[in-house]
Design brief:
The complex is a heterodimer of chains A (about 450) and B (about 290). By secondary structure, chain A is α/β, with parallel strands linked by helices. Chain A has two domains: about 40-145 and about 315-380, Periplasmic binding protein-like II (D-Maltodextrin-Binding Protein, domain 2); about 155-315 and about 385-435, Periplasmic binding protein-like II (D-Maltodextrin-Binding Protein, domain 2), CATH 3.40.190. Chain A is built from 19 helices and 13 strands. In chain A, the strands form four sheets. Chain A has a five-stranded mixed beta sheet with strand order 2-1-3-13-6. A four-stranded mixed beta sheet of chain A has the order 8-11-7-12. In chain A, strands 4-5 form a two-stranded antiparallel ribbon. Chain A is globular, with a radius of gyration of 26 Å. Chain B has about 290 residues and is an all-alpha fold. In chain B, helix 4 packs across helix 7 (about 150-175) and helix 8 runs antiparallel to helix 9. Chain B is globular, with a radius of gyration of 24 Å. The termini of chain B are far apart. Classes of the chains: A alpha/beta (about 450), B mainly alpha (about 290). At the A-B interface, helix 1, helix 2, helix 4, helix 11 and helix 18 of A face helix 1, strand 2 and helix 11 of B.
Chain lengths: ~450, ~290
């Protein structure tokens, strides 16, 4: 063997030295990574990237005013699902470096069941949400405890073009008719754009529509998952069918099947569509973009079938306290400040965020500077829709997304797809019922 | 200290590393696949007597994803092999600027997959992407490249082929360089056509390199994750969901670690079977007398 000459020159001493050197090289970085204890208490917050930018100045101000309590913000990804993956990756390792996590409303039940959150009522009081708009109070409690303080009061909204119509449509039928007519007159290429990609946004669209057609996704009840799905009800099937017909009749582009919030927004902002379904953030985005529709955009609550009144999907973000935080008291203080009326007021003014406190909706300065506020208040009071509050929500949502996206991209029929979604949901809920007793 | 003892000692760190990185997670997953460990058990493992495996056998989504993964791997690696061979033959010819050309062809492979996937997402964008701009320039209607299951699958394969063909070309080029030029010259002198040279000389001598490229690429393609995660996000209607993504989804989104581990082990077993099959096939070919 070629290396044998060299090998014979090795002495036991040199081998030992080599092994020791290897050990030192492995252990040294580990020793360096161990942090010394800080003097002032530091509360570490993990948030999606846009929130980090939006709150950077406010956080700097807080740190100036509080010499003994420091807020340190870590930048997460932009995308909601990527953010969830990152947070969960950290939480699974046990010792998460963060005290607070900015959470999407759809994660609450799952995180609670995983044992990752600390109830807040003991730290912030039983009446912590009392002064908020009723709709913004939803989705923060689960199993009799408060787990999350909402920072924003987002709901699904309907964006429309003030230059193409005098007032927004109130029903699904009206929306479709107006869209078709505008398309026929050649005023817009497309009628209505929304989120049809296989992802959480499609579940939000579906939740709104299922209720808009008189059905419901989730019937709370008993069992380990806390209820049952009703996806094969006439309302749910009508909802799916409406979406499919929008695409097949050309009111919505086929490409909507691969649209998330931003793709839909781009098309609307380019002046290529009469209606857009999106969240409150879209208002600022469109105005900032400087495209052809600036100054011609109106906002309204979402439409429902004639004779039915329903709301938009609740899509709020809120702060939760993570189990294992070494200083829950200080962390709760930071939650109080971060989600408090003053911080939220600044965020409405600077960023156009939708607030959660009732008093901010009555604030005349805000009303003047932020025209969206009146509609947002209406949307929150109209009873926004909370996605099924169950630890198994992620699975249920995944099943529904697949079926509905399949409807949009294949030749399937709405009844068959929704019946399948219902059957799969039932199988999931029943199989996990067995799992718990095992 | 005897040389063999030194050998063992020197190998120990590497073996230890392999044990930590491969064997331990695999054994851990195998154990976890016999447990219920999800949000409903508070993430703590509770023995559930093979219920995960029973669920797997009846899980059409697993078998569908297995078929999706296999089809993706076979077609994309097949195309990469053909194109890679053509590229390698071209790059092997002496000529001016060959060095630059070789460096250029490697570029797609040097890009991180997520970056290229984002790039392709934009290229395929309906209606604003560059491909649709070209279609529009010719008066055609915009095409939804990532809208139907069939076209999404095809264009995902193309994105993968674009990225990894250079890798195959590089391996095969190395193989071509190892074939002595005299052999080809003597065949030319005896009046062999280029096609004959390729069939009788180049390809047989290139066989070990082709096997190597196949092995590398198949292993990678069967574990496809990042390209799909960024380009299609398993859509439309889950038609591009690979086994790796299904396991990931179960662990990171659904927090169902018992079932995720079951998927990991099942995928591993599937890969072992495929590898053994492929190895047997290649070995039998290698033993055949050359014509």
């Amino acid at each position: 063997m070629a290396g044998s000459g060299a090998r014979r020159r090795l002495t036991p001493g040199s081998v030992l030295a080599g092994l020791l050197l290897g050990l030192v090289l492995i252990l040294l970085p580990a020793a360096l990574l161990a942090r010394p204890v800080a003097a002032a208490t530091t509360v570490r917050v993990l948030m999606p990237s846009p929130f980090v930018d939006a709150t950077a100045e406010l956080v700097a101000g807080f740190n100036r005013d509080h010499p003994n309590l420091k807020v340190e913000v870590a930048r997460g990804p932009l995308d909601t699902e990527a953010m969830s993956d990152l947070a969960i990756g950290g939480l699974l390792l046990g010792d998460t470096p963060y005290d607070l996590l900015l959470m999407d409303v759809s994660w609450t039940a799952k995180y609670v069941a995983a044992g990752w959150l600390v109830p807040l009522e003991g730290l912030l009081g039983d009446d912590a949400l009392e002064a908020m708009v009723p709709g913004a109070r939803l989705g923060n409690a689960f199993g009799g405890h408060l787990w999350r303080m909402p920072l924003t009061g987002d709901t699904g909204l309907l964006y429309w073009r003030t230059d193409l119509m005098a007032s927004p449509p109130r029903t699904t039928t009206e929306l479709e008719a107006v869209a078709r007519q505008l398309q026929a007159e050649g005023k817009v290429r497309w009628g209505y754009v929304w989120q049809g990609r296989q992802y959480e946004g499609l579940s939000c669209v579906m939740l709104e529509l299922i209720h808009a057609f008189g059905g419901q996704w989730w019937q709370p009840g008993t069992g380990p998952a806390g209820g049952q799905t009703e996806l094969d009800s006439p309302g749910a099937i009508a909802a799916a069918d409406w979406l499919v017909q929008l695409v097949r009749s050309g009111v919505s582009p086929e490409a909507v099947a691969d649209f998330a919030e931003n793709e839909a927004l781009q098309l609307f902002a380019a002046g290529d569509a009469a209606f857009l379904r999106n969240w409150p953030y879209a208002w600022r985005e469109i105005e900032k973009g400087g495209g052809p529709v600036v100054g011609k955009v109106g906002v309204s609550t979402v439409v429902s079938a004639p004779g039915i009144r329903s709301g938009g999907t609740l899509g709020t973000w809120g702060l939760s306290l993570l189990a294992g935080s070494p200083h829950p008291q200080e962390a709760a203080e930071v939650i109080g400040w971060f989600t408090g009326p003053e911080t939220q007021k600044a965020l409405v003014l600077d960023q156009g965020y939708a607030p959660t406190w009732a008093v901010l909706y009555e604030d005349s300065e805000l009303q003047q500077k932020h025209p969206l506020l009146a509609v947002q208040q209406q949307a929150l009071e109209q009873g926004p829709l909370v996605r099924p509050l169950t630890p198994l929500y992620a699975q249920l949502s995944d099943l529904l997304q697949r079926q509905v996206n399949g409807l949009l991209t294949t030749e399937a029929a709405a009844t068959a797809a929704m019946t399948r979604a219902q059957r799969q949901s039932t199988v999931l809920l029943e199989s996990t019922a067995g799992q718990e007793s095992a | 200290m005897t040389p063999s003892l030194v050998n063992t000692l020197l190998m120990l760190p590497a073996l230890l590393l392999l044990a930590i990185v491969f064997a331990w997670p695999l054994l851990d997953s195998a154990w976890l696949s016999t447990q219920a460990s999800s949000v409903l058990t508070g993430l703590s493992p509770i023995a559930n007597h093979g219920a995960n495996w029973q669920r797997l056998l009846g899980d059409t989504r697993f078998w569908q994803d297995a078929a999706v993964t296999l089809r993706f791997a076979l077609v994309s690696v097949g195309l990469e092999l053909l194109l890679g061979l053509a590229m390698a033959l071209l790059l092997h010819r002496p000529g001016r600027g060959r060095g630059w050309l070789r460096a250029l062809t490697l570029l797609p492979w040097a890009l991180p997959t997520t970056v290229l996937a984002l790039g392709w997402r934009w290229i395929y964008n309906d209606p604003y992407g560059p491909l649709n701009a070209i279609l529009r320039a010719f008066g055609a209607a915009p095409y939804g490249f990532l809208t139907t299951p069939a076209s999404t699958w095809l264009f995902t394969v193309l994105a993968d082929v674009w990225k990894t063909t250079p890798f195959v070309a590089l391996l095969l080029l190395a193989g071509l360089q190892s074939i002595p030029a005299e052999l080809e010259e003597s065949l030319v002198l005896e009046g062999a056509s280029p096609g004959q040279i390729l069939r009788r000389l180049t390809l047989p001598l290139l066989k070990p390199w082709i096997s190597l490229a196949l092995l590398f690429r198949l292993a990678q393609a069967l574990g496809v994750f990042d390209l799909v995660q960024v380009l299609t996000r398993v859509g439309p209607a889950g038609s591009t969901e690979s086994l790796a993504l299904y396991a990931y989804l179960n662990a990171m989104r659904f927090l169902d670690f018992g079932y995720s581990a079951t998927l990991v082990i099942a995928t591993f077993l599937l890969l072992v079977v495929l590898t053994v099959l492929g190895w047997l096939l290649l070995r039998r070919r290698a033993l055949e007398p050359s014509r």
